[in-house]
Amino acid sequence: MNGGDGGDVAAAPAGPPPPLDWKFSQVFGERTAGEEVQEVDIISAIEFDKSGDHLATGDRGGRVVLFERSDTKENGGSRRDIEKIDYPTSRHPEFRYKTEFQSHEPEFDYLKSLEIEEKINKIRWCQTSNGALFLLSTNDKTIKYWKVQEKKIKKVASMNVDPSKAVGKGNIGSSIVSSSTNSHLANGGCKDKSSTNLINDFKFPAGGIPSLRLPVVTYNETSLVSRCRRVYAHAHDYHINSISNNSDGETFISADDLRINLWNLEISNQSFNIVDVKPVNMEDLTEVITCAEFHPTHCSTLAYSSSKGSIRLVDLRQSALCDKHSKLFVEQEAPGSKSFFTEIIASTSDIKFGRDGRYILSRDYMTLKLWDINMDSGPVSTFQVHEYLRPKLCDLYENDSIFDKFECCLSGDGQRVATGSYSNLFRVFGCGPGSNESTTLEASKNPMRRQVQTPARPSRSLSSITRAVRRGGGESPGVDANGNSLDLTTKLLHLAWHPSENSIACAAANSLYMYYA
Amino acid sequence: MYAFCYLEITMSMVDEPLYPIAVLIDELKNDDIQLRLNSIRKLSTIARALGEERTRKELIPFLSENNDDDDEVLLAMAEELGVFIPYVGGLEHAHVLLPPLETLCTVEETCVRDKAVESLCRIGSQMRENDLVDWFIPLVKRLAAGEWFTARVSACGLFHIAYPSASEILKAELRTIYSQLCQDDMPMVRRSASTNLGKFAATVEKAHLKTDIMQIFEDLTQDDQDSVRLLAVEGCAALGKLLEPQDCIAHILPVIVVFSQDKSWRVRYMVANQLYELCEAVGPEPTKTDLVPAYVRLLRDNEAEVRIAAAGKVTKFSRILSPELAVQHILPCVKELSSDSSQHVRSALASVIMGMAPVLGKDATIEQLLPIFLSLLKDEFPDVRLNIISKLDQVNQVIGIDLLSQSLLPAIVELAEDRHWRVRLAIIEYIPLLASQLGVGFFDDKLGALCMQWLQDKVYSIREAAANNLKRLAEEFGPEWAMQHIVPQVLEMVNNPHYLYRMTILGAISLLAPVMGSEITCSKLLPVVVTLAKDRVANIRFNVAKVLQSFIPIVDQSVIEKTVRPCLVELAEDPDVDVRYFSKQALEAIDQVMMTS
After folding, report:
1. Helices then strands, each counted (H, E), chain B
2. Can you list the residues of chain A whose pLDDT is less than 70?
3. CB-based contact, A82 to chain B, within 8 Å
């Protein structure tokens, strides 16, 4: 947004950018009418990589599916291109299925008699290198580091001892291999000894032995291979809700309800506990960690949100144990507005740093809030996501929907924010100065079907903000924009904004919908 | 296995003696990773079989092309290639080894890259100057311009080999490239450049050191990534040693002082850890004027981790100061640290504080250090007390045993009964040292009973250590003393109703016997062992057989014939198979001794 700020100044006289006209782009895993959704197929995490060339989704079945961008020119370009890409293409991003792998399996913790679901809670992309993709995926307990790489399938052609020549003896070649393996393993190097002795006894002629040949290997085709490189386990007593990479490229954090741990990517057997909010007496517990994220560029800054709706900024330089925050962002609640649900709906379900790290976007049950990390008196803007649900909080509490954890995302230029709602709807708000953009889209092939009239909103500039103003308050009351009945079962929890283009990927149950503008 | 394969060998036209090597070569491409690994580990054998020329022309290119393997295999390959010069025809052909290692320098697994860099350095340091210019320097430049950060990370570790043989123009180019690496946009590359800066700087001419290298260094010390800055701390020590003293004071000292007040505790931690090396680099005078205040700040740092690192260096640092300065500046901090809120700080302090005694001298020690020392001995955490006790010899020399024993004993007794068996184990291991320090008289009164008590500990490791401890005490104080203070007490316990304790005694007896000598063994120990041969538990009986076997070299032949053999013969008829087995072994051992003598 820093870069964007500069742009804003120039563009300021022209007013806010026009609202985006969202169009359907693609859908993966679309359901046919009447088809039942398999629980395991429901998408539980979405993440674009830094370049926006790849998209990963995780599902409740523990699978990670990768998509790659198909509309750009061959990305055989240099690393630097791939690292900080800014495609000046006129076309919108299109993706194609790349590969998938089973990241997590259901497990059972015998000590605690707990089932550990395979559901992928979060995916984070790591630094690409050597043309291979790297990502972290986590379920409730275990984080895994994956490498996805194109591998050439080798075919060994010529050998000294040709197995196929042993006609009539079955496959002697392989039986040699297996027998020698056995002796090797069982007797701890017994085979080695015998062959070494033979070799040592043998005098090699000066020019070598001409009859020996090296195997000839031919490569015909390639295939994508996903390998789990590291497993970071046994560090969390509670359920992991987030993982986040540090800008230093060597560390990442994982957060559960009460603790945040710091890991080195290369070391899987130890981590450091940097935040611990567990009270001595668990009965005193009033607040849990709901989400944690590293600052995109400052290696020592991280933010975490809590179930009380606060966001804490932590400076890792200050001390090894960062139980003391360096900044606290919390909105003072309006007096008199307190109800039974106030605390529940205040819980922050997701936070995201903007790309330049100046702003933090947070989502609680009813609103989306944008915070300036230089202003801890309150959010810069608040967007009402589904204000029409407010009278229904009691019902939502009854059926537990009130505890749904919606994610949020910012556009690459920091000018817009988005988050999901019920009935497979998601909303996009303009947060740039003067913008009153507010769009409701449906995750379907016709996103504008339920378009809500954008309400008027006081326009003002971000740079002159001294106090927070509520926005989007003029939303149409009633059940739903189109009078359709509210569907609490179809909730759009997960969505992600492409890092450099106006493109949103969102999950509706088992389907991945992509939109562009 | 070889007979089985014979038919096939003849069929595939490989001579029989060549069969193993043929298989070895084929297995370079086997599907089983263990076999591939095995072949790579024997790469030198394969090379000898192929001969130098074919190794150069076929094997090495083959390895260069087939680097799409598992990390373990690549790691092994990187290691083997580092010592491969003899197999490719000596130094003049050393350069053929560079291409496969160059590709290994770009893989994403750090340990493989590190090994490849290490091997390249090893080869490069042997290569002829011309070859370095023709082959090695271009390789470094290629890696430094690598597309992926992995190559650039590896490049940083090769400059110190490439630089010395380069021409002036090339040298200037290499310096420029290195400074670019220090500004790379990937922090991984900057970290590697920071780590390797000292090595590279050591090869750079003095004139450029002061200009180019110091500029690079300065940039690194201001990097916004903590992980880069903290590596630059090590650079301070390395560069400081290369610079003239006045340059060091002008350029390095201010950096150290700034680092010691860095915002990031990890950087300060590094300073605390490296402080001694840093002092060495800047020399004694600046140490006194600038680094003492810095060190005092670190000792009082807000962050416990920093204090731990600083506390661990108290002695080393005090040694380079005068006693007055140490008393004036360091000792007050030490006093504070001894009651630090973090047990780890106190523990770190406890492990080194005794070393300060010789620095301060006797008076200052008794007056100032002893109270600290005593309060640490009473610390509520066993680690702290243990650390003090383990450095006991140093204390004794300075303050004398009487003063020591008064305060020491309660601590020892308490630790000897600690809830954690590892603590008990640690204290047992110090007992012989203690015994030698305290002397016989003191030991008898206070510690003798403890040593016996441990023989009946609930934990096997403690009982085992206790038995071993008795042996070492007997060695320390001699057989006569042991005859009075150990043997009777031990033998008393042989009737313990629990067989595991009887087993401990048996173990103790077998350990004590060699120390006690033939006479005591025959008169005191042997009868007890023979009685145990009638024990109702088979485990005891076969251990008796083992102990008797261990007695063979100790006791006289007449005793063996009169007592040991009959006992073993009887055991050889035991209903239990293990007892029979071990008694037969013992009997065989007797027979063998008889035959040789």
Report:
1. 46, 0
2. 1-15, 73-90, 162-203, 449-485
3. no
